[in-house]
Known about the structure:
This protein folds into two domains: 6-182, 3-Layer(aba) Sandwich (Rossmann fold), CATH 3.40.50; 196-417, Rossmann fold (3-Layer(aba) Sandwich), CATH 3.40.50.1260. The protein is an alpha/beta fold. It contains 15 helices and 15 strands. Helix 8 packs parallel to helix 11 and helix 9 crosses helix 10. The termini are close together. Strands 3-4-2-1-5-6 form a six-stranded parallel beta sheet, with helices on both faces. A six-stranded parallel beta sheet has the order 9-8-7-13-14-15, with helices on both faces. Strands 11-10-12 form a three-stranded antiparallel beta sheet. The mean pLDDT is 90. Helix content is 36%, strand content 16%. It has helices at 36-39, 42-50, 75-85, 100-114, 130-134, 137-144, 180-195, 222-230, 246-255, 261-268, 278-295, 330-340, 362-375, 386-394, 409-417; strands at residues 16-20, 55-59, 89-92, 119-123, 149-152, 175-178, 204-208, 238-241, 298-300, 305-309, 312-316, 324-328, 345-349, 380-384, 403-405. Strand 3 (89-92), helix 4 and strand 4 (119-123) form a beta-alpha-beta unit.
Amino acid sequence: xxxxxxxxxxxxxxxxxxxxxxxxxxxxxxxxxxxxxxxxxxxxxxxxxxxxxxxxxxxxxxxxxxxxxxxxxxxxxxxxxxxxxxxxxxxxxxxxxxxxxxxxxxxxxxxxxxxxxxxxxxxxxxxxxxxxxxxxxxxxxxxxxxxxxxxxxxxxxxxxxxxxxxxxxxxxxxxxxxxxxxxxxxxxxxxxxxxxxxxxxxxxxxxxxxxxxxxxxxxxxxxxxxxxxxxxxxxxxxxxxxxxxxxxxxxxxxxxxxxxxxxxxxxxxxxxxxxxxxxxxxxxxxxxxxxxxxxxxxxxxxxxxxxxxxxxxxxxxxxxxxxxxxxxxxxxxxxxxxxxxxxxxxxxxxxxxxxxxxxxxxxxxxxxxxxxxxxxxxxxxxxxxxxxxxxxxxxxxxxxxxxxxxxxxxxxxxxxxxxxxxxxxxxxxxx
Length: 431
């Protein structure tokens, strides 16, 4: 049975709606890095307005502050939303040392004194209070008391079910539904998950790339996701590896076992790796190679690299000591484009190079364009996570992918298991 969405709601008029969003999209200087996550909330907010919601209360967090931190205030987001909606978006600031309970009370007073029907208000970064991260039942109940409807539209934060305003809050609100963006993400990602097990389908391509491997606690590694997906993949499917994620794989293939950091540097030069975790990453890479051989799944590394060598750049097939690789080369691009033809599904999980730098952006541009072109042929194409989606938008192909997912870890977790725990806490669609 499908989860209910805000589009299915009938009794909205006159009620306050609490909307969980993912607005962690700015630097510490308040600069919006990429507005996709902010813009993604527009459909839900406009739907609630059209349905006559009394107040629309936006809930989010950003960064990992240790208490009140003005540099991580969500005020810049409220300013951006004002430009998006062309109407005032209220913001309720916090004060240093203010308790969670006192802040919720200040929000309650603000709603009653300064807001009119149909207005939107953004609350302060909820991680300013430890009660959010700790999943405080009292905090969840206090925030829930501000509204009569809970809308989960923060897909990028939806896997943080232990947070008070993600999981705990659902115990105290009678109506709990998905937002427009959340429902869209679930629909596409569920389709991808189901398609993996179909008897008749085209080949499946999973591209794991990005600036780092990331195997820190609480972060789902792309290598772990690839390994789990390979359990459902079949002969002829492909795992393509680019970006900084490729370098532990290159080292693992060349060294064939444990190696010192100097031996690893002989293979990948000065290319970025997380040295403290490189042994673990190489072990994970070897497991991917082994699983690929056992199942007939091609695990493909770049054939060539664009490197920085001193003050110059060059394209090489073998990275030499002193070189720093930052993009895939033209030979790799040409090979990968052939793989894309006729694919059933292509998931791009991370940029294949340093796309922000014009010297190292061409590989990412070519791969992005090639994937986008396959969408027209019926291939399901997903840019998974903020960096991937930002890159697609930078290259002007945002309308040519099936889905630009606003989630990073949430998207990868969904691809592994076909659902997120928060979905079990939302109402079901009635027929």
